[in-house]
Amino acid sequence: MDDLTDQQLRDLVTRGAAFAAGARPDPVLAGKVVGTYFSKTSTRTRTAFATAALRLGGQLISYGPHDLQLNTGETIADTGKVLSRMLDLLVIRTSGPEAEMVQLSGDGRVPVVNAMSEREHPTQALTDLTTLQRCFGRVDGLRLLYCGEGNNSAVALALALTRFPGTELTLCTPPGYGLPAEVVAQARTSAAASGASIVQRHDIAQLPEQLDAVYTTRWQTTGTSKADPDWRTAFQPFQVDQQLMDRYPRAVFLHDLPAHRGEEVSAEVLDGPRSIAFDQAENKLHSAMAVLEWCSTGRTGEAEPGRVHPGDSGRLIWW
Ligand code: CP
């Protein structure tokens, strides 16, 4: 998120929403080869970036966790020096730090997209904001409750949403599983500059009065494990169930998926009429097209904030 200016962030969200509304992509990747390297499992992000690359006219080489000589001991730096001489763009998911991604790009020789790292899941946040833009016609001023583990999706969401004026983000995370203190501090600085607000609480009884959206995520984040064998006891009160949603009858429900029904969310909520989680999943593709277009051309297409409005998706116009 730190690599994007406020305007670039806003433009990427607007462009993703425009693709979701049916804007036709230009073949900006024609003649280019995009590599995707996912050392961790992925259904949505990997498919979204592969499909986006093909829809933008590019060609694709897809590496899974067992494909590269990294497995036999070749260094990350040497791997990057080779890949960056052949590929035009790289999309990477690892459970390591972002610095590894930079090495894999040949120290910046080709653009690299963080498709999830240990700390951050920035393209998920772009998708989340694109989904809010599609649903409400704006991101500014929205009130969102994030309930559950303070993972890399939450980090990226906090760093992104607080840059939109008037937004109110409440993070309700189990004790010991919140966002890192430096992330909260950075998000507070962004919020102070934009006129947004962010609070992190560890008590599910302390919830906001009014909300536009409730967001949760799987308790066991991809590529991680928890030291405490009894961690579920701490998480159980933070399940998003119908009782919680009933407190906010106008709020929509988001989930970055994959989901475990009966853990972080009840089936009734995830599969219910106010869930936009699967629209959100689809928006990963539209958002990925916006990201690859920007990486390839340095521009975010015909971003026009007024083009997207509630009801474009044919739903969520019921309030
Ligand atoms: N939300 C998300 O990143 O999904 P995948 O792990 O399936 O890519």
For this entry, give a set of tags.
single chain, about 325 residues, alpha/beta, Rossmann fold, five-stranded parallel sheet, four-stranded parallel sheet, 9 strands, about 35% helix, disordered C terminus, binds phosphoric acid mono(formamide)ester, Asp/Orn_carbamoylTrfase, Asp/Orn_carbamoyltranf_P-bd, Ornithine carbamoyltransferase, Asp_carbamoyltransf_Asp/Orn-bd
Described by the principal axes of the CA atoms, the overall outline is: globular
Widest sheet: strand ordering: 7-6-5-8-9
Assess the beta-strand content as a share of residues: 5-15%
Mean pLDDT across all amino acids? 93
Bound molecules: phosphoric acid mono(formamide)ester
Order of helices and strands: HEHEHEHEHEHEHEEHHEHH
Helix content: 25-40%
The unreliable regions are 303-319
Number of strands: 9
- CATH hierarchy class name of the largest domain: Alpha Beta
Strands, helices and their partners?
Layout: H1 6-20, E1 33-38, H2 44-55, E2 59-63, H3 76-86, E3 89-93, H4 98-104, E4 112-114, H5 122-136, E5 143-147, H6 152-161, E6 168-172, H7 181-194, E7 197-201, E8 213-216, H8 231-235, H9 242-246, E9 252-255, H10 267-270, H11 277-297
Parallel strand pairs: 1-2, 1-3, 3-4, 5-6, 5-8, 6-7, 8-9
Helix pairs in contact: 1-5, 1-11, 2-11, 3-4, 5-6, 5-11, 6-7
Residues 42-46, 116, 124, 222, 256-258 line the site of phosphoric acid mono(formamide)ester.
Describe this structure in words.
Residues 140-295 form the Aspartate/ornithine carbamoyltransferase Asp/Orn-binding domain. Pfam families: OTCace, OTCace_N. Belongs to the aspartate/ornithine carbamoyltransferase superfamily. The protein has 319 residues and is an alpha/beta fold. It folds into 2 domains: 6-120 and 284-297, Rossmann fold, CATH 3.40.50; 122-280, Aspartate/ornithine carbamoyltransferase (Rossmann fold, 3-Layer(aba) Sandwich). The chain has 11 helices and 9 strands. A 5-stranded parallel beta sheet has the order 7-6-5-8-9. Strands 2-1-3-4 form a 4-stranded parallel beta sheet, with helices on both faces. The longest helix has 21 residues, at 277-297. The model is unreliable at 303-319 (pLDDT under 50). Residues 42-46, 116, 124, 222, 256-258 line the site of phosphoric acid mono(formamide)ester (CP).
